[in-house]
Amino acid sequence: MKKELFGICPYVTSQKILTGKWSIYILYLLSRGPVRFNELQRRLPEEMTHATLSRQLKQLEEEGLIIRHEYEQIPPKVEYSLSEIGEKFETVLDALENWGNDYIQWLQKTKSNE
Amino acid sequence: MKKELFGICPYVTSQKILTGKWSIYILYLLSRGPVRFNELQRRLPEEMTHATLSRQLKQLEEEGLIIRHEYEQIPPKVEYSLSEIGEKFETVLDALENWGNDYIQWLQKTKSNE
DNA sequence: CAGGATCCCCACAGATACTG
DNA sequence: CAGTATCTGTGGGGATCCTG
User: Fold this and answer.
1) Which residues 8-37 of B interface with strand D at a CB distance below 7 A?
2) What is the four-CA torsion angle of A84, A6, B12, B84, rounded to 10 degrees?
3) Which UniProt keywords apply (chains A, B) (predicted)?
4) Which of B1, B4, B14 to mutate to test the interface with A (most CBs of A within 10 A)?
5) Which tens digit of pLDDT belongs to each residue from B65-113?
6) Domains of chain B
7) What is the pTM assigned to this prediction?
């Protein structure tokens, strides 16, 4: 029998959500307010294509973290924003930002010592 | 020119560290104190083989998050523990645990409504 | 503008066998 | 006990082309 811990263990569950290569960055960008599709892509590193962005957004939407709001107009306008449970993720983002910066500093100290 | 954000942006850098399928769970287990290799495997979900665990540990060690301490004895004994920068990650783990539990609750509420 | 459809490709997890 | 070596399969990202 396989132990399926998704939906049971908070760590395994979180890890699953964060699998996407850009998930954290996307959530961070959306945490600062709703953003349109193209604008989102512009703010992401260049190597990410819109096809990839599209997939990641759809996944995050299916997981319930973000909301897709489509304005019925020509030309099309679609805004993405955090859902309620997505907004709660901001505490994780804050912790990640702090730790990430610490880690970057540590990296530089280490590199300069060799 | 490619924007390489690893080592610059805290979010991209964090994401990179967390790529491994079990990284968060491993860091959590180690946050409770040093653990030996086999014990670590026993506490992880069954589907993970020791080959996979070995690779993940080596990666985390190379990234500087964990420390491998080998006791010179027969039979061998190796303990893994968090490094200094690894211990700082615990604030992220706490945030993840809280959010993960919230998300699990949210999942169940959502599921029961359909 | 905001995507969908395809194809390709590879990193990485899993399985198995072997070792000091 | 604590690994390494090797093979294999697959999911997911990148690239390119097409569309309402």
Assistant:
1) 36-37
2) 110
3) DNA-binding, Transcription, Transcription regulation
4) B14
5) 999 999 999 889 999 999 999 999 999 999 999 999 999 999 999 877 6
6) 10-112 (1.10.10.10)
7) 0.94
